[in-house]
Amino acid sequence: MTTSADKGIWVLAEHSEGELADVSLELASEGKRLADKLRQELVAVLIGTGIPAGLAGKFRDSGINRLMLVDGPGLEETVELRVQALSEMVREAKPGILLCSTSIFGREMAVRLAAALKTGLAPNCLSLDFTDDGRLQCTLPAHTNKTSAKVVFTTARPQIVTAAPGTFDVKRARGARQPLTVNVTPRADPAAPCARTLRIEKGDPRTMSVEEAPIIVSGGKGVGSRENFALLDRLAEALGGVTAGSRIAVDLGFVPVAKQVGQTGKTVTPRLYIACGISGSNYHTIGMKESKVIIVINNDKSATIFKMADLGLVGDLREIVPAITSELARTLPAPTAAAAEPARAAGARA
Question: Which residue segment(s) compose the domain that 57 sits in?
């Protein structure tokens, strides 16, 4: 259970190429909700080398009380130094909960911190809450996302959890203001690391896993043919996203099974999900219902999937999809791999 010894909730924020990752504000919003329940302080931690000063302003509306900037040589390229520095800070400050993302950066930090601090880790959480006696309760996917399980921390501290980008909404905190910024000199042994990042390789959005993609254009039986599905491919490329499909679309050979969304496929939580020619059976919607924005294109105005649409377009997708793609090509710059990839790319190591 939460005790008086627990001193606040920490959010491990992420930044890349001078920009704050969206997931950092998502975790901050969830952290604020939890911190209000516990009446404890909410702290964000940015760690790296040469952290841009302007990132502090990004937290103005998040409800963060303190922003700790841990800036030092080698931190950007060496995960071991980051873990050394952060684990030492955690031992001193004793936060009760540490929130991380499931990005490459977040996963790598979370598992190493759990090992260094000899504490527990609840990965890929779908929701967070407290039990009646004040213990953190995490809902996790189980049995290849077919069901969920609830995990409760007993005595392990800090309680480390990870959540995928898009799991939590970004909300403006009531009475929010600029957090107090604290510059921290990291304590780390520069001779300790055995690996370092040499360079960042940008991912190709066309080959990105549907589970990681922030934008998905998905098709069902109503697409009609593989030739018509190429229209969805072009729309996804224009948006910097990926294509996916329902089980029937996979059975018909429109998309590979690795891109199947639904009960017998993948569960996705993109920022934008465009459903084309999909009727909306529970077998499919269970895998995409947590998408932030859902756009439906279907010539059947009574299709069930319209009930969950933020925007619905009734008509022939063979006309609507090319029209949208053409307008995007006219008004938007060509997408790059950096625009569609997660906040951190995998680093080559030596």
Answer: 9-195
